[in-house]
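Help: why these numbers?

___
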Amino acid sequence: MKSFDPDDEAPDLDVGDERGVQLHDDEVTIDVEAAMTLLERVTSDLPGGGEHREGQRVMIQAVASALSERRTLVIQAGTGVGKSLAYLIPAALSGERVVIATATKNLQDQLAANDAPQLRHHLASLKVAVLKGRQNYLCRNRAHQVSGGAQLSLDDGSDAPKTVTDQTKRLLRWMDETDTGDRDELSFEVDPRAWRALSVTPQECLTRAKCPQGAHCFTELARDRASESQIVIVNAHLYASHLASGSMLLPAHEYVVFDEAHEIRDIFATLLGTSLNATRLYGVLSLSRTLLGASKRELHDDLDAAIKRLANVLEEQFATGVLRGLDEAAALALARVSELMTTLVERVREFPTSSADEEARKARVLGPAVHVLNDLERLHRVRDEELLFLAKRSHDVDLELSLVDVGPRLADDLWSHVSAVLTSATIPDALPRQLGLGEQLVERVESPFDYQHHALLYVPAHLPARNDERAEPAIIDELIDLITAAGGRTLALFTNRTVMARVAEAVAPRLDTPVLVQGGLSRKRLIDEFRRDDEASLFAVTSFWQGVDVPGHSLSLVTIDRLPFTVPNDPLAEARRERAANPFYDVDLPRATMLLAQGVGRLIRSATDRGVVAVLDTRLATANYRATMFRALPPMKRTRDKAVVVGFLTELRDEQTSTSS
């Protein structure tokens, strides 16, 4: 453990004769009284002077104790507890570097823009940094090459269209204005192809020591800031990549907080595996053609044909519905691609360079080629704890390699090296075991909100079963009645994008209030529009089930069209079912219950919010597992009576209309 100099980065908090932090050999003691004093000061700055939240104080004590004792804490904190400050304050007073990893970018942005600055207002010496993956930062060296006349081409080798070229020029001008090079700080929308032209993957990077622009590299400067900071805010995807890299991406640390911890099992399962598709293979081929030129035309043509063959046989296998493993034709096609990619890597390594620019061009090919070759080798030697399966993300069929059980890997490579706090508004009892934490108990801090008087859960039993062809028309009629009663102000959540689009198209013309539909605008723009218009309804799918915070009059009704069970033929879920003693109760029900709780949690976001959650799937009214789901939801009053719901929503609408007029 690093030493702590009381004159360097000391908490600026006067708590009498005691300090906020005391170190004793290998132990850090966090002064809980100092933490409570800091909490009062921070919350007093909030609108209305803040409010006393007993659950928040309980969580601060639990986090402080866990960090002090170097143990892992798993804690569910209901909506409204204020969990962000409840872990940030003990982390700040620990005197140790603490990495905060969030599952969503929304929460990462909230911590960086709101919570951390509130804390730093009272702890001026506290250093906080946000660190993102390399492709989130503009690459100065790549920009230098493009501005110097290098051909601007896309990953598939085609010339960039004028719109992309124009945006690239705008990004080059922005580079001279920005201090961070962070894509999220752009004030204008940018085509992903334009950003890709001026950014690099980790495999394409020359490294700081070899890059002509290394001293001014935006990514490396962000890493410098992180290495000098006590609190480092990242997303869980970067943390998983850090673990996969052998702990090479983040500054050394012994403490980590995972917020939205219910998501990290799947994030680690994916990021500790790999993914490969034809687009990625063609990208390497295109780069190699640019570097090696006509001298290796035969090799390039052979690889082109092999990639086409692999893409075709993967499409054929996917069409049969056999998603796990590779059939004989696919295995042979993959082996041919591997053979040719091995030769290509050898030829790129042999390519002579005589200048820094040529070395940069070579690195831009060699890095991705070696990475692809390594992934091809992994796909040929699937381990017992891994699953190879096919998935269609866009137009390609992807080869996916994921960990079925992340527990053993995390137990060996993560939990044995750090003390961790895992928190979320929804944590299934089984999560600690699934993450390799054994029979760790989940501590729970209840929400302070008055759900009994402020919220109603509508569970209709009169609708057709969700697999009945009459179900969708019935749901359309139900939505129109409910949204009309609410005066808009609705977040309509769906499990399927196609169904969402169909229902939205049918509902919108029959409403007098505006309807926003996920798919056109960015997530941020959609949420901003929804917040701005008190009468709007927003139709959305998976990514909006969590991380959406719309308190106040903009939201009175949340509807859920179907219980969010994983589709039966999902390969990873199938593999987990095969390993479970009771597949439905061990795999399917816990995940669906967790996602349902997240969706329901979108409604009440502040102490004054009121509204209705309508789950338009009769299984929640009739299935024998409904009690399990109800236990995971906030303690709202429940009803099957539509007239009661319409009356409640109409009353809310009239109150809100009179208040705003």
